Amino acid sequence: MAGITSYGAYVPLWRLSREAIMKGLRGEKSIRNFDEDSTTMAVAAAIDCLKGKDRAAIDGLFFATTTAPYKEKQIATTIAAAADLRQDIITADFTNSLRAGTAALRAALDAVKAGSVKQMLVVGADCRMGAPGTDFEQNCGDGAAALLIGDSGVAAEINAWHSVSSEIHDVWRRDDDEFIRAWEDRFSYSKGYLNTVTQTVTAMMEKAGIGPGDVARAVIAAPTPRIHGEVSRKLGFDPKTQVQPHLFDIMGNTGAAYPLMLLVAALEDAQPGDRLLLNSYGNGSDALVLQATGQIGETGARRGMKVHLETKRIVDDYRIYLQWRGLLVFEAQPTPPGGLLSASALFRDRNQVYPLHGLKCKNCGGVHYPPQRVCPKCRSKDRFDEERLSDKMGKIYTFSADNLCSRREAPRVTAIVDFEGGGRMATIMTDRVLEEIEVGMPVEMSFRKLVSQDGMHNYGWKSVPLRS
Ligand code: ZN
Question: The CATH number of the domain where 158 resides is what?
Fold first, then answer.
């Protein structure tokens, strides 16, 4: 039986207090830092999911989002490269729908069942924007989730599935829209969400031969907390005992990643034998039934939803949020040192840029980054193996803070990091509070957007303080 063999998630460190958006609003929502986007959050979730797994055994990666940083250029390949997966794998992006996450999950499940792959990684990430002042702005959060699909060591079997397609303009963005658009509330809710979800979940339960009482956890990705409560009751689930919390008060609706993130949260608390129901909505609806196996607690230590939600920093200045989103520009961004981006240089150096490969000397064992032909320790030449540094813990050897940088980053912190097991690297430090940085502080590496210029996004690894 095929199903979920591992799971992981990523919630950005930063939460915008809703009080900062409008007086009287309560709770907070997760917001990406200025150097994060759907690609970088997806990498973080993928790596969380793959903890303790052999990355060379993954046969494919499906990526789901409605906020891809490119219209033409695959994102799944960037995530696969940063996660250091093999090159002979299947990759695809699933986009344009809030059901993209569950669509990718269905495709991965079918691929495993058909035997065309053994293990497929499904990653969803989104950072949608509501226009300032709208309910969408209050409700949308940023985040990512990853699920590994396979047929051995299954932690949650996927037993039944039902999908419905529905052509409707209720919530959408045109090709050139920055902000979410929506038709009138009552129409969207009654003819769109409620109608379609009820039809889908009812048909799925009939197919599976179960009733609402047979479900331990109903994971319902509804667009607002009010609708979440209403549809849960209408479907026959007890909101107090059966329904997975919607997390609107601490995170928000994370788009195509939302159903997958709620599912990860449900799996973290699931007991062997528990039956879970997952539902997504977006121009139709997907509903599926999962059942936790005896392996459910055996996926090993990962941050998942719990640790990522518990570790946070509050942003209570709305202007910072607007700046990080690029909606408020205080100044022209200065061109960073290093000159223009070069696609050919990025391609040539791809192993040191995406999976952060350094070199390990075959003669003395010294680890070096960036790669160079002569070992600085023992002077032997061209005798190296590549070694991945992106998943190594490190400590700050020394650091500096520089105010000659863009205002949204100031001061820019450069930290020299010594990796466990050897190797030293000059890094930019992010998700940090300047006053808390000190020599010897433990750090890890995080995939971030370094700069966007010349029509390209340039990604790389920065250092961050440990989340737990
Ligand atoms: Zn050496």
Answer: 3.40.47.10
